[in-house]
């Protein structure tokens, strides 16, 4: 739903004396996702130590993949500063194309909407600042509730806040282990956002983005199964 904001990350890097280019950082996100892709049967541990080590590595690789000029020590320092500032003001705030319109369509169709995020206690404020919080009935942040995906309990918190049963809900996310496996463990249906076609092995309907998922969900409303997407996994 939201992606790295290149301009914000570049501004954070500048605090460490590193000159990064926002557009290059955003263009490098696809390569970063491919490099850090999950493998079948392995849970991606992004928040094992509160997320510090994994996220600092992620920002360091993002700088490198964007071909940001600087010696290794400066890039390391900038990655640490980016992470520090991200924890204060979430940098995942670039709204995907068509997301806002999709949320409006879903709300108008009577759907209740929630965000379940492995975050750092900043996701709700970020959603307020980018103007998406008003479309959501609940926001569940792992740092606030003390439970991280794929633990099924975090999905149950969202269900309780919405007042719906697992059978009446569907989770859509971009992580096979955190979002798809976690949702299945909680008894929810699930769909995968896979814009770079990285997870052919994942047994879930695949969609390029939120608008495509929204179209399928609205078309399938009233049925007993999850919306049909590109089934790239084994039957």
Describe this structure in words.
- With 235 residues, the chain is mainly alpha-helical.
- It folds into 2 domains: 87 residues, DNA polymerase, domain 1 (Orthogonal Bundle), CATH 1.10.150; 125 residues, 3-Layer(aba) Sandwich (Rossmann fold), CATH 3.40.50.
- 45% of the residues lie in helices and 10% in strands.
- It is built from 11 helices and 7 strands.
- A 3-stranded parallel beta sheet has the order 5-6-7. A two-stranded antiparallel ribbon has the order 1-2. A two-stranded parallel sheet has the order 3-4.
- Helix 4 packs across helix 5.
- It is globular, with a radius of gyration of 18 Å.
- The protein starts with a strand and ends in a 15-residue tail after the last helix.
Write a brief structural summary.
With 235 residues, the chain is mostly helical. It has helices spanning 6-14, 22-27, 29-35, 52-65, 72-88, 99-108, 123-129, 142-145, 152-162, 176-185, 210-220, and strands at residues 2-3, 94-95, 114-117, 138-141, 170-173, 189-193, 206-207. Helices cover 45% and strands 10% of the residues.
């Amino acid at each position: 739903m939201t992606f790295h904001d290149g301009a914000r990350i570049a501004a954070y890097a500048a605090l460490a004396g590193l000159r990064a280019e926002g557009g290059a950082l955003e263009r490098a996100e696809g390569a970063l996702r491919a490099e850090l892709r999950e493998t079948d049967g392995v849970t991606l541990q992004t928040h094992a130590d509160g997320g510090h080590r994994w996220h600092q590595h992620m920002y360091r690789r993002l700088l490198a993949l964007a071909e940001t000029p600087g010696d290794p020590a400066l890039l390391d320092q900038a990655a640490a500063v980016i992470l520090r500032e991200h924890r204060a003001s979430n940098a995942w705030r670039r709204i995907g194309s068509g997301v806002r319109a999709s949320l409006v369509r879903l709300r108008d169709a009577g759907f209740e909407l929630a965000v379940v995020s492995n975050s750092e206690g900043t996701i709700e404020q970020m959603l307020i600042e980018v103007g998406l919080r008003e479309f959501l009935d609940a926001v569940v942040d792992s740092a606030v509730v003390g439970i991280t995906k794929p633990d099924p309990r975090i999905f149950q918190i969202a269900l309780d806040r919405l007042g719906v049963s697992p059978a009446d809900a569907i989770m859509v996310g971009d992580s096979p282990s955190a979002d798809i496996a976690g949702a299945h463990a909680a008894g929810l249906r699930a769909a995968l956002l896979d814009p770079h076609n990285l997870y052919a092995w994942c047994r879930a309907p695949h969609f390029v983005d939120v608008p495509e998922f929204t179209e399928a969900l609205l078309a399938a409303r009233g049925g007993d199964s999850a919306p049909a997407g590109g089934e790239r996994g084994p039957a």
